[in-house]
Amino acid sequence: MPHTKDLITYFKQTPPKSVLDILEKLFPELSLKETEALYWFACGVHTTDVSTLMNANSNTVKTYINRCKVKLNTESATDLRLIFHSRFHSFTLASAFNYQFPALS
Questions:
Q1: Distance of alpha carbon 5 from its chain centroid, rounded?
Q2: N or C terminus: fewer CB in 10 A for the chain?
Q3: Over 80: is that where the pLDDT of 9 sits?
Q4: Residue 7: per-residue pLDDT
Q5: In this predicted structure, what is the pLDDT of residue 46?
Q6: Phi and psi at residue 72, in whole multiples of 5°?
Q7: Are 13 and 100 in contact (CB under 8 A)?
Q8: From CA 88, how far away is CA 104, in angstroms rounded?
Q9: Taking the chain, what is the end-to-end CA distance rounded to the nearest angstrom?
C-alpha cells in the first residue's frame, strides 16, 4: 500500500474527481468494482441496495464483498468495515490537517 504522504502529494497534483479515485489508491489490492462495493458496504448500505446502485446482481455484489474479505485478510463484515474506515479516515485526516510527515531514516 502506498504511503499516505505519497497519496496526499499525488492528489494535490491530480485532484480526485470522486471518492472512488481516492479509494482506488487506498485499496490497490482490490478491483474497481470491489472497491466500489466495499465503499457502499462500509457506509452501511444493504447489499440489495448496493446492487441497485452498482447496476449489478445482488449475488455479484456479495461476491465482490467476499473477495474484499479474502484480499484484505479478514473474515468478518465488521473487520472489513474497520479496515475500510481506518485507511480512509487516516488519509482524509492527514489531508485535511496538512500533516507534515517526519523524515524516514
A1: 17
A2: C
A3: no
A4: 64
A5: 93
A6: -95, 5
A7: no
A8: 22
A9: 19
- Residue 93 has which C-alpha cell? 485526516
What is the separation of C-alpha 13 from the centre of its chain, rounded to a whole number of angstroms?
20
Q: How far apart are CA 18 and CA 35, in angstroms?
A: 13
* Residue-level pLDDT at 21: 86
Whole-angstrom distance, CA of residue 105 vs CA of residue 56: 47
Q: Report whether 35 contacts 27 (CB < 8 A).
A: yes
Give pairs for 61-70: CB < 8 Å, separation 24+.
61/37, 64/33, 64/34, 64/36, 64/37, 64/38, 65/37, 65/38, 65/41, 67/30, 67/31, 67/34, 68/30, 68/34, 68/37, 68/38, 68/41
Question: What Cα–Cα distance (Å) separates residue 19 from each residue in 26, 79, 80, 95?
Answer: 11, 21, 18, 14
In the predicted model, what is the mean pLDDT of residues 30-36? 96
Whole-prediction pTM? 0.80
